[in-house]
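Q: Give me the 3D complex with pyridoxal-5'-phosphate.
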Amino acid sequence: MSIEQPATRPANPRFSSGPCAKPPTFDLTRLADAALGRSHRAAVGKDKLKAAIEGTREILGVPADYKIGIVPASDTGAVEMALWSLLGERKVEMLAWESFGSGWVTDVVKQLKIDAEIKTADYGQIVDLASVDFANDVVFTWNGTTSGVRVPGGDWIADDRQGLTICDATSAAFAMDLPWDKLDVTTFSWQKVLGGEAAHGMLILSPRAVERLESYTPAWPLPKIFRLTKGGKLIEGIFTGATINTPSMLAVEDYLFALDWARSVGGLQGLIARADANAGAVHAFCAQNDWIANLAEDAATQSNTSVCLKFTDGRIQDGASFAKAVAKRLELENIALDVGAYRDAPAGLRIWCGGTVETSDIEAMLPWLAWAFEAEIAAQTEAA
Ligand SMILES: Cc1ncc(COP(=O)(O)O)c(C=O)c1O
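A: Here is the predicted complex, encoded as structure tokens.
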């Protein structure tokens, strides 16, 4: 078995699942027009915040009667705002099949102390979506970033639901089709699929979610940072660019640049095609090599962004240290950065395949993965 290094290297070794690679055309001069040192409430700042909201609507195809707000604390902030502001009015079903979904379960059960129905599945699998009762509020993650398992579309979500659907879509938005008529609350953060900067989250509300906000007051106190209503009415300003507190205008400029780049590659369909091509290259590699496999067992649930892989070679003695060592070799060679599995996930690798990653870089990286695997098998044999 040869362990010669491949001749070609990826031009960009960034395959992190967040913050994700910047768009290929990014450089810092692109941010020169940022409204720095200006009030975000001045016309220039408000216009940029509004452009971020309307650009999001345009590219994601969010219906005109849905509200889009820029909120503090990234995707986590957006999800927490939704959970704390909306839940408690009726029964809640929590669906989780990896670390982030499990985190929302903990929040709802241990912090809000809601007696929720919890449905969980192991890493690589998904819960029984057919069993979900949409008389309840339902909280789920569209794409489980730490297991690489996503929902297979939105057909399982009832059109005539009485409860709300609350969807953490942070590693799905801009890479997967999101059926807005099925989603009442959708969240994501800038640092994910478009390769923006961390800091801010996006909260997208359907008319039914707004109606809940205006007709129901939770039993628990809400800090200012979570408050979406005042005197029983939605604070409309949050959804037109008047943020709850001070945003980073540098991060806003960066997001506006990312949205422009998204337009330049064909908008949402162009982004989906790029992610599909990237994930497809990894899937083909798994099909060709019997020592590696997708963690997501059912092809219908395999992510096209956070592709999680497991080593399946019987010669591997210690799965966790083997996977870490392979990731380390790829990092030391500057071939693939940040591709170790998430800390709570099974041992393996996670390759980000969102649209900011170039397929040519995925294709150049994969032979190096084979090289690192073989080198590590050899090292393990030598050490024995
Ligand atoms: C599914 C999911 N939810 C939430 C988060 C937290 O996102 P943020 O750090 O932007 O708040 C992440 C981050 O990777 C994620 O993948």
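A quick observation: The chain has two domains: 28-263, 267-383.
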